Structures are given as C-alpha cells and as structure tokens.
Amino acid sequence: MEIPDVLKMPQTTTGHGDRSKQITNPELEAETDEEMYEKTERAADEDMTETEAIMIDATVQASLALVARSYGAVR
Question: Where do the record's region annotations for Disordered lie (predicted)?
C-alpha cells in the first residue's frame, strides 16, 4: 500500500496566498442568520419565562412566610 507524500483534502476556500476567502452563498448565509436570530430570541423568551416563574415563586413563598408569622405558626 502506497501512502502519498501529500494528502489530498477537499478545497473549501479560494484565494491567493495567505488571504483565503470562504465560498459563501448570500441567500444561504441570510437564511442561517435568520435561523440563528430566531433560536436566540426563542432561548431568551424561555429564559425570561423561567426567571418570571422563579420571581413569582419567591414572592409567594415570602408572602406565605409573612402570613404564617402573623398567625403565630412560625417563630
């Protein structure tokens, strides 16, 4: 079995010398940007919902503690 001196790799960039440039499809890139924006927005909405639930839970717990103290249940 012969092993070549230089492995052949698929060319994914074009350019001259050290200045390489990725081959891109503007339509595909715009679609990818839009998808990334939607995923980021969705994640932010989920984080906000979770934060609101935590804040509500903390408020309810604090209110219950105040009510319990006012009735003398907790000292």
Answer: 1-35
pLDDT at 74: 55
pLDDT band at 45 (very low <50, low <70, confident <90, very high): very high
Output Rg (C-alpha) for the chain, integer angstroms.
Answer: 29
Residue 67 tokens, joined: 């009510």
| Cβ atoms of 21 and 15 closer than 8 Å | yes
Q: For the range 22-30, what are the long-range contacts, defined as Cβ-Cβ under 8 Å and sequence gap of 24 or more?
A: none
Kindly report the pTM of this predicted structure: 0.48
